[in-house]
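Retro notes (design track)

What went well: tokenization of the new backbones is finally stable.
What didn't: we kept losing track of which sequence belonged to which structure.
Fix going forward: every design gets posted as structure first, then sequence, in one message. First example under the new rule, 195 residues:
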């Protein structure tokens, strides 16, 4: 990639980062192209040249955000952290960030997700799901997870935790219980080793 292409790519990333920061704080509708341009230190014309419209920019920002989140998960999956710590991070780690995301931006993410065939669904199916399955298999091999429990049941169980955690009114109540909830996740209410 030559110098011009590198600068062009960097400008696009700067616009995406600025847009994401503003959308997360204020929501999509309240942020103007002028504000994005000011934060990204580019002209409004540059934004329209790169993205065509605010709607296209929003779509690209959502993809950018999903890629960032996935990158963090990849680092977690590839880390040498023990299996229980990985699960704890998957369930609890994003809560502080979720509390800081504007509801309207979150709604835009959900709208993108429910469009049917889309980037988020493709990312989940092709990248995330296989990595989660590998993680669960690792947990089974290391004795953390009962091998008779299907990966589908584990995925559902984690999703239930995450969905509940993402309710804004629940976060402050749940975070102090992180250790106890993690124990419940691994051992249920009967405790370890009880059949």
């Amino acid at each position: 990639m030559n110098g011009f292409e590198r600068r062009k790519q960097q400008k696009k990333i700067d616009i995406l980062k600025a847009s994401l920061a503003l959308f997360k704080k204020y929501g999509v509708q309240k942020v103007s192209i002028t504000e994005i341009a000011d934060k990204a230190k580019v002209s409004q014309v540059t934004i329209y040249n790169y993205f065509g419209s605010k709607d296209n920019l929003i779509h690209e920002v959502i993809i950018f955000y999903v890629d960032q989140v996935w990158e963090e998960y990849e680092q977690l999956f590839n880390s040498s952290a023990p299996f229980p710590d990985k699960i704890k991070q998957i369930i609890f780690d994003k809560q502080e960030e979720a509390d800081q995301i504007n509801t309207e931006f979150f709604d835009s993410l959900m709208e993108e997700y429910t469009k049917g065939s889309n980037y988020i669904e493709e990312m989940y199916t092709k990248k995330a799901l296989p990595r989660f399955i590998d993680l669960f298999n690792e947990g089974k091999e290391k004795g953390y997870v009962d091998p008779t429990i299907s990966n589908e049941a584990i995925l559902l169980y984690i999703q239930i935790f995450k969905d509940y955690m993402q309710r804004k009114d629940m976060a402050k109540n749940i975070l102090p219980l992180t250790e106890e909830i993690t124990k419940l996740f691994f051992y249920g209410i009967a405790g370890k080793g009880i059949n």
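Added context from the reviewer: The longest helix spans residues 54-78.
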